[in-house]
Amino acid sequence: MLTMQNVSMVYRTESVETHALRDFSLEVDEGEFVSVTGPSGSGKTTFLNIAGLLEEFTSGTYKLDGKDTNSLGDTERSRLRNEKIGFIFQSFNLIPELDIFDNVDVPLRYRGFNAAERKRRIDHVIDMVGLGSRKKHLPSQLSGGQQQRVAIARALAGEPRFLLADEPTGNLDSEMAESVMQLLEDINSKGTTIIMVTHEPNLAARAKRNIFVRDGRISTGEPELQVAVGG
Amino acid sequence: MELGPIWRALIRNKSSYILIALQIAATMALMVNAVSIIQERTRMMSRSSGTDEANIFQIYSMSFDPAQDYQAMVAADLDAIRGFPGVANAVVTNSLPLRQGGWSQDLKTEPGTDNEGSGVAIYFVDEHGVDTFGLNLVAGRNFEVTDVSWFDPDAGPRWPGLVIITEAMATELFPDARPADTVGKTAYIDNDIPVTIIGVLEKMQAPWKDWAGVERSMLVPMKRGDGFARYVIRAEPGYRDELIPQIEQMLAERDTGRVVDGAATMTEIRANAYLEDSAMIKLLVFIVSLLTAITSLGIVGLASFSVARRTKQIGTRRALGAPKAAILRYFMLENFLISSVGVVSGAVIAVGLNMWMVQRFNLTPISWYIIPVAMIALWLVGQCAVYGPARRASLVSPAIATRSV
Ligand SMILES: Nc1ncnc2c1ncn2[C@@H]1O[C@H](COP(=O)(O)OP(=O)(O)O)[C@@H](O)[C@H]1O
Ligand SMILES: [Mg+2]
Fold this sequence. Notes:
The complex is a heterodimer. By secondary structure, chain A is α/β, with parallel strands linked by helices. In chain A, the strands form two sheets. Chain A has a six-stranded mixed beta sheet with strand order 6-7-8-3-9-10, sandwiched between helices. In chain A, helix 3 packs parallel to helix 5. Chain A is globular, with a radius of gyration of 18 Å. Chain B is an alpha+beta fold. Chain B has two domains: about 170 residues, no CATH class; about 220 residues, no CATH class. In chain B, the strands form two sheets. A six-stranded mixed β-barrel of chain B has the order 3-4-10-7-9-8. A four-stranded antiparallel beta sheet of chain B has the order 2-11-1-12. In chain B, a hairpin with a 3-residue loop joins strand 8 and strand 9. The two termini of chain B are about 30 Å apart. At the A-B interface, helix 1, helix 2 and helix 3 of A face helix 1, helix 9 and helix 10 of B. Bound molecules: adenosine-5'-diphosphate and magnesium ion. Magnesium ion binds next to helix 1 of chain A.
């Protein structure tokens, strides 16, 4: 469902060129749970941004569901993000001035669902992440783990086929991290494809497939390095 | 529409927005009342004096020789002025509309001292008065040469029994009669001297623009023959400005012993009469523009700040599927809601302020339509002001969502 061929990404500022991805090629099939590890600055977030249509790349091809994303305009990319992709961020990215219900509602409004349909979906996903009694709470009134579960609910409400998570447990203690990880495994078992960037080898190891990124490239067959990876 | 969540987010941050909403409310209240005052003044200023203002000017002559025959001098001056090329007609009179100084007396429909009269402005003219002022005689007849007498400055007017009045005066005296039907009726001046109405003018303003009876005027067929003679002259179209120095010179040369002075066009007399009003209008326009400019700068500032503060949120919304247009719309709608709070409370304040000013300063109440017009104007100002920051917000990259800010 996701095919990248020789994708390169160069960030240019006045003085420096950063090759964040170099000839990056990867295929991910429907239903996979892929973990991505690698040293800091190796290009993991850049890869995720490109995969999630948050950023355009410098060269190469990226097909999502067989569709070449190079030719898409901003409106179409926004629509694909909204319908096919769910995002989970390290710092949760909940909107502080909206309560939990309204936060989960954000992508559904862009989708154009009517009020009844939105409410049905919001209630369903909030119950699913176990926060049914907190709908009227503001994000600041929840713990980190709870906020991340709200963010997961928000990512799932549109029933995306594809979930991208950038260090979803990076800001959580191990107990909360475990509950979030279980939630993700649960979601994957129901058929949603997940790509998760993480720093934690034991979480990465639970994915069905591991990718190790170094210097903007996928390096293969070095599982022992994964263990050595850190912050 | 996403009004619900935008409104709830605003309410949770109300301290950031309350000041700008208040500023919009104050601008609205001031704008409505200023527009109302401007309207009122403009309406006053645009009233017609009933005369051919564009072509009329005055000049006066002052003589100091007690032995001189002033009646002969005025008669000869008038002949000379009327015969001057470019002059349409001329008359010797005591005042003219908008001059802010003149003669008025009471007219009564019954003789005697007990009953109330109605004030009327008096213009002393000869048979050329109606034509010189360019007045519209709608009923009855003009004066004839034989109707006109000389005014003895020492004895005061010996009222000739004939007058011409304006429609407004006719209605004031005889509210039940059509103005034209007052021709032939008798009124009383100096309590018991009868005067017969022989003609009715469509319009001729009294000299005092602020007088409640400004439309009530009367022509009396008398000429003043004393040392001071005010000549009102109507030029043929296009000749007014060149005629003024020529007539001045001609009059001065005809009698070197006098002072010829006071040349003023009716355009100047009008501008002078309404000087304060037009200054007031300019001041109010300036204040309202300034306030509107300050308010829109405030909106730009607040919106820019709020866009900068919410960069990450904007990126997140983009990541979750908001197209650029949705981000633009978010900030436009947010401003619309803030402005709505402002203009609605502004409307309430405006009406309150107006009610107070009506009582206190005798202003006219606001015309109701100014309120929705001002609301729409301020909504538009807000939308224009917020467009720049909102557009910048729509250009925030969705990648901001994953990059730590
Ligand atoms: N917007 C940007 N402008 C310039 N350089 C960037 C930008 N984003 C990322 N980079 C650089 O690209 C490289 C890869 O970054 P990133 O993908 O965030 O790495 P990781 O997520 O693996 O830590 C880093 O060297 C980083 O500094
Ligand atoms: Mg990263």
